[in-house]
Amino acid sequence: MNNKIKACIFDLDGVIVDTAKYHFTAWRNLANQLGFDFTEKENEKLKGVSRVESLNLILQWGGLNFSDNIKRQLATDKNEDYLSYIKKMNADEILPGVVPFLDELQKLNIKIALGSASKNAVAILKQVGLMDYFESIIDGTKVVNGKPHPEGFLLAASELGVAPSDCVVFEDAPKGVQAALAAEMFAVGIGNDDDLSAAHLVMPNFEKKNFKGIEEKLLSLTLR
Ligand code: B16
Ligand code: MG
């Protein structure tokens, strides 16, 4: 039986930083150039979804289809636009409570990994100065199967040398929560979306949260 959590795996966008607003702007710029628009509500469906899958969904909303070559170019254009926003980020954009939480984990010798769908994850962590906290970084360049497939989280646990059942995943996207559960890990939803109700625990953000309190709640669930 589980009596201790040994590792925390963090999603990036929506958990550590709010890069969703930059994805939205860059995808919207692209859609507008192609002659259509989409809403913030539709944008919610892109959270945790890979770049290629996001493009396919957006083109579907606009009723458009292109060859793979053109789609590759569109994805590259969007990414260049997105990176122009990322390059302006700094530590002020780290979401509330994240740094004290990471500091607590380090003090307690809890291992820390990233499990993100983004191919820009390393650039973003460097930009906001958080690289040194992460012992393992699993991003969109390292996995074949995107969330809700558990591949990324399982790879993170394996790189850390920790059993999946001793890991907790922090995720803002329903697909990410599904991936954590499929990996047989604890899942903590970040946000207030009803769609996160599959998670073992949901909290709005890390503000005033401490690891010990979360661990206690999660482990009490396993004793039910
Ligand atoms: P990129 P996460 C995800 O990040 C975003 O939520 C999603 O909107 C984005 O399409 C995906 O990364 C890929 O991002 O274009 O930078 O490779 O939430 O998994 O950290
Ligand atoms: Mg996310």
Bound molecules: 1,6-di-O-phosphono-beta-D-glucopyranose, magnesium ion
The residue-averaged pLDDT reads 96
Largest beta sheet: strand ordering: 3-2-1-4-5-6
**Percent range of helical residues:** 40-55%
In CATH terms, what is the fold-level topology of the largest domain?
Rossmann fold
Number of domains: 2
Query: What is the assigned CATH homologous superfamily of the largest domain?
Result: HAD superfamily/HAD-like
> For the record, what CATH class of the largest domain applies?
Alpha Beta
Q: Quaternary arrangement of the chains shown?
A: single chain
Strand content: 5-15%
Overall geometric form: globular
List keywords for this structure.
224 residues, alpha/beta, Rossmann fold, DNA polymerase, domain 1, 2 domains, 6-stranded parallel beta sheet, 6 strands, binds 1,6-di-O-phosphono-beta-D-glucopyranose, binds magnesium ion
Task: Give a verbal description of the structure.
By secondary structure, this protein is an alpha/beta fold. The protein is built from 9 helices and 6 strands. It has a 6-stranded parallel sheet, with helices on both faces. Helix 8 (174-182) links the parallel strand 4 (167-171) and strand 5 (186-190). Helix 1 (20-33) crosses helix 4 and helix 3 (51-61) crosses helix 4 (68-86). It starts with 6 loop residues before the first strand and ends with a helix. 1,6-di-O-phosphono-beta-D-glucopyranose binds next to helix 3.
